[in-house]
Specification:
The complex is a heterodimer of chains A (about 200) and B (about 425). Chain A is α/β, with parallel strands linked by helices. Chain A is built from 12 helices and 5 strands. In chain A, helix 7 links the parallel strand 4 and strand 5. Chain A is globular and about 45 Å long. By secondary structure, chain B is mainly alpha-helical. Classes of the chains: A alpha/beta (about 200), B mainly alpha (about 425).
Amino acid sequence: MRQPLFFGNRQVRLVADTSVIINLNATGRASEILRALNIMLQASVVVKDELVVDRNNGRHDSGLAADLVAGGLLEFHDFDLDGEGLFESLVMGSAEATLDDGEAATLAHAISSGLPAVIDERKANRIAAERFPDLKLLSTADLLSSEILIASLGAEAVAAAVFNALRDARMAVPEVHHLWIVDLLGERVLDCRSLPASLRARP
Amino acid sequence: MEGIYEGSGTEFVRRSVADVMATSAIKDTLSPEDLGERIRISREAAGRTQAETAEAIGVARTTLVAMEKGVRRIKIGELQLIARFLNTSVNALVRKEAVHVELMPKFRRLSENEEKSVADAAEMMAQLVKADVELEALLGVEHVRNLPPERRILAGDVRQQAEQHALELRHWLGLGLAPIADIMSLLELQMGVRVYARGLAGKISGLFAFDEQVGACILLNAKHPLDRRTQTAAHELGHLVATRGDAEVYDIDELESSREEKYANAFARGFLTPAQAVRQKFEEVTAGAASLTRRHVIVLAHYFHVSREALVRRLEELQLTKRGTWDWFVQNGNITDEQARQVLGDAVQSDRLKDDAVRTVSLKTSLLAFEAAQRGLLSEGQIGRLLHLDRIEVRDLLMDVGAEESGANAATSILR
């Protein structure tokens, strides 16, 4: 059902956006997922600030992110000189050509550190593809689609994690992942409003 | 995709940062003066002094003054600190289309308590207006503005002037003496006023602000009943007609003694209940009766879409009934909603703005935001910042509109 993006036996470093950390937290199993995939996340300190204020709904992503940091699964980084310049170029200009600070900081840090970025936001993906064609871009769904997760956590635990992210965080899922998610969740897709209506209409 | 992480992350091929920066021409950057002005407006809207802001970013106050005047270049790191201190983002401060206007009132005779709630309401109105104006600009939506001619308040009786101006406006709008069933729509559609309703502190019935860039804006208290909100809207219309260029944008119950407030109150009465129309309808409804009954009041208030109190006070003013009539009703069991129901039946008047006010974001703004996201004009983070929503709320908003859109096809295409 999925391509083996991760191998488990070698640590992979990825730069995560605010929305990805929110999605992972919503799975209820962020630490287990990152450990199973042997992923070390990095994020900009701008993202850290966003997690603190992004809580109108009573979520506590900042606290959950702190748990990931304590568990050695997430590091927050300041910009280096290159990153700062890139950040500036991504936030200044017309609305269409720019991003909000967290999204811009994620791309800037990924480029300046030479690491792939995990970012679900559609416009950020478009801008990244246009301006940084060599930057490897991943989504939260890419992480959750790994066979290693099933092997490590079991299919039902992965299904519950995916369902939680979809239901509680309204995780956006690229089209390439629709089929396996429908297969994995079965009837539960009916409750996942962030999936396209056409998927939820399936019997 | 398999094996893309062979080796370490540093094997990921990247162009040099300088190369990327050079090829991504940073267009549409603001002039230092414009940037400084935006910072000043955002700082004042956040209620922060120059000294506090300077301290927060680790510069001298004089340096911040120079930044706001545009004579000292602001480094990106400093901008980040400023944005963080003012609870906004660098992008929201510097994005070309972002709207930065001053809609804050200047206070007069307000206690500290009142000042805070009026300031909060004014900031809320500014946020609503800024979001709509930026979204409209991004999407190329033209906001039609057709403001009525301005009338200055001159020496002499303000009430007489207000009555006259209200009648002139009625004629300008082609209303004649007809009752006004939906003043909010009249303001929006015929005059291009931006009208919002949100739950505000109890004492605030409404705010009015005017800015050349964004036009006339009115914020009404959604917690107040529709007839009272109608009265407030007409009152704010009085400000629009006579004092739109002035700084006074508050409307608090206790502050009715200024000439401008007296004018606005009289304007509202004249606009909603024109003397001639009231006299005519009063004759019809009372039909030679010797005293004014609750039924008379209920029918007349319903006809003119005003509160029962407003109607009786208008009858007193027009000397159709004795001064103190309303007070008598109040002291003698009032005129209750139940009595009104007995007279008028169960027909519930629709209250569009109140319904909209319980939404996190108004229906109109939701549609604009969805369209901006669909067209890739704004990111999730930018929409969240613009509408003061967190990420999940943004996703909810885009999903709700998107779900309705999913059935759209060629058969429903809009012809332009």
